[in-house]
Amino acid sequence: MSSAQKIKWIGIVTVLLPVLFISLFPIVVMISTSFKTSQEVYIPPPTFLPRAPTLRNYADIWTQAPLATYFRNSLIIGLGSTGVALLVGVPAAYALARYKFQGRQIFLLLLLAIQMFPPIVIILGLFRVVAALNMMDSLWTLILLNAVFSLSFMVWLLMGYFMTIPVEIEEAAMMDGNSRVGAMVRMTLPLSWPGLVAVGIFGFMNGWNEFLFPLTFIRSPEKMPLTIGLFKYVTRFQVEWNLLMAASFLTTIVVVVLFMLVQNQLTRGMVATGEK
To answer: Which of 133, 140, 167, 206 has the most Cβ atoms closer than 10 angstroms to its Cβ?
Structure first.
């Protein structure tokens, strides 16, 4: 390794180490606190590592609040919004990738404009619409809203991925008697698996982490997702940090495991779309 390479490597490490520390420190504190007793959490000065590690918090969180119900609702919202968004986004992205039509560029710009508006800007208008449709306190409301706000990003990403697939493959399938839809389903979609995984993870994360919509539209405790249900550990007089951190860690580990299972497809999908 030359001197220039050593200096470059030292510079990269010098910059990345503080960033890594800042990023991982809250996670380490969360995991550490989840193994502390309620008494140790409030003992001054605070301890970084638990003095008497305990697993009781991970048992108590299931009895202190209906955590299983919150998990179920979050899974329904995440998977449901992902499915709806893919059902609408795949045909839209395919049409934008394969067809040139009047107003195509304007439509793409409108999709970008939709992505630029955060939900908080239009939450009052959404509330009036949802109330008028009598869809308050419904998981379907959360599924549809999360799907809508994930759709523009999904369409853009999938459009780029479809454009990397040679159109000659579909033409050959159509020469064998397949329709345009049949060629897309039998040829294009199997080749687009990494891209579909990438946008699917994005859609699931949006639904899993959503806070504003359930806070606004859900009232029944049995329909609350994890993001709202975790507040059950924040009582009027104190915050049960040990229970809150244990529940938060379980919530986080689901996403981590999901990323580990599909990391190869996710990387391939993002790289292929970026190259296009």
So the answer is: 206
Which pairs with CB-CB distance under 8 Å and at least 24 residues apart come from 27-32? 27/252, 29/245, 30/245, 30/248, 30/249, 30/252, 31/245, 31/249
What helix, strand, coil percent values describe the chain, rounded to 5? 80, 0, 20
Structure pTM? Answer: 0.83
Backbone angles phi, psi at 239, to 5 degrees: -110, 120
Helix or strand (DSSP H, E) at 164? none
For range 216-238, the mean pLDDT: 83
Cβ neighbours of residue 264 closer than 8 Å, sequence gap 6 or more: none
Residue 50, judged by CB atoms within 10 A of its CB (0-12, 13-18, 19+), counts as middle
Say whether pLDDT at 179 is over 70: yes
> Do residues 242 and 32 touch, judged by C-beta distance below 8 A?
no
Interatomic CA distance for residues 61 and 264, integer angstroms: 34
Domain at 59-275, CATH homologous superfamily: MetI-like (1.10.3720.10)
CA pair distance 91, 154, nearest whole angstrom: 11
- The neighbouring-strand residues paired with 239 are 234
Q: Is residue 272 pLDDT above 60, yes or no?
A: no
Q: Which of 189, 175, 191 is nearest to 94 (CA)?
A: 189
Please name which of 218, 219, 221 lies closest in space to residue 232, comparing C-alpha atoms: 221
The full DSSP string for 195-211 is HHHHHHHHHHHHHHH--
Structure tokens of 158? 């999938």
The residue ranges of every structural domain in the chain are 3-42, 59-275
